[in-house]
Design goal:
By secondary structure, this protein is α/β, with parallel strands linked by helices. The protein contains ten helices and 15 strands. Strands 1-15-14-13-2-3-4-5-6 form a nine-stranded mixed beta sheet, with helices on both faces. The protein has a six-stranded mixed beta sheet with strand order 9-8-7-10-12-11, covered by helices on one side. Helix 2 packs parallel to helix 10.
Length: about 290
């Protein structure tokens, strides 16, 4: 494990540094750069600093394959894509559940390449039994959000539609979110471990927050599909993130960088640690790619 400083990118071997220095203008040498949003590009108030925005824009302008890879749903991801100037390329939303192809010539500026759906019923029933006071929300295959107890979050990107629990059980899901204001994060984690969720992929957030996707679906699985589609060599991959839902992505990348404020298990999965989101850690990583 190494710490990324302002003037060094310690921990990368000489070959990787040579690759990064030579990749600016040659099409065959572009890097594939996967960037988490919340806690990485923006702080936990949703603010993106000028240094981060400008660094991201410069890496996009240099011709690299810059991809947002986020737990946010589609409509909450699009403003970030626009903010850093990605007009053509790809993005991963809903923790790998939705993959976009970005194309400025399309009427919406994008098309959905893939959605990974699943039956949320078994997981929801098990969770409801163990966490009866939790709030539940579900992104369906049409991009709508269904929720119980007026559950709304900025990561949804649309206003959630209030439904009863039975309606949620019968829906086809891309993403399920569970939040408990009644439990401590430790109690929440204990409950989830006790349930032993099967047939899905899940990650626990900073608080008593749970994201659920289809079995085997993560940011990393979606990014690997895109890497193959683009023909990018594995050693030309970089990922930056701060959350538990970034662990697989950091392990997937040849250069996985954890934000300075990341939990210990996220840092353990990374090759490097940069500064925190409040100290523009992502900007330092992005500038190192251009150096």
């Amino acid at each position: 494990m190494t710490t990324l400083t302002e003037t060094s990118v310690a921990g990368n071997d000489d070959q990787r540094n040579d690759d990064q220095r030579s990749n600016k203008n040659t099409t065959g040498e572009k890097m594939m750069i996967a960037l988490d949003v919340d806690g990485t590009l923006v702080d936990h108030d949703g603010h993106m600093s000028v240094p981060v925005r400008e660094a991201a824009q410069d890496v996009v302008a240099a011709g690299h394959h810059v991809m947002i890879a986020t737990g946010r749903s589609l409509n909450a991801t699009l403003p970030i894509i626009e903010h850093i100037g990605i007009e053509n390329g790809y993005a991963v939303c809903s923790n790998g559940g939705v993959t976009l192809r970005l194309d400025s010539s399309l009427s919406d500026g994008y098309e959905v390449l893939h959605k990974a759906t699943f039956d949320p019923g078994p997981a929801l029933r098990a969770l409801r039994k163990r966490l009866p006071t939790a709030k539940y929300a579900l992104e369906d295959e049409d991009g709508n959000f269904l929720s119980t107890e007026r559950f709304q979050d900025s990561s949804f990107g649309v206003e959630a539609i209030g439904v009863d629990f039975q309606t949620m059980l019968e829906a086809t899901a891309v993403r399920v979110v569970v939040f408990s204001s009644e439990n401590t994060p430790e109690e929440f984690n204990t409950a989830i471990r006790h349930i032993g969720l099967a047939g899905v992929t899940y990650s626990v957030g900073w608080t008593a927050w749970l994201d659920i996707a289809a079995a085997g679906v993560t940011k990393a699985s979606a990014l690997e599909h895109l890497r193959g589609r683009l023909g990018i060599e594995a050693h030309r991959t970089i990922a930056v993130g701060d959350g538990r839902n970034d662990i697989e992505m950091l392990g997937w990348a040849a250069r996985g960088v954890a934000m300075g404020q990341a939990p210990e298990e996220v840092i353990a999965a990374a090759d490097e640690v940069t500064r925190s989101v409040y100290d523009d850690g992502a900007a330092h990583v992005l500038r190192s790619i251009l150096s």
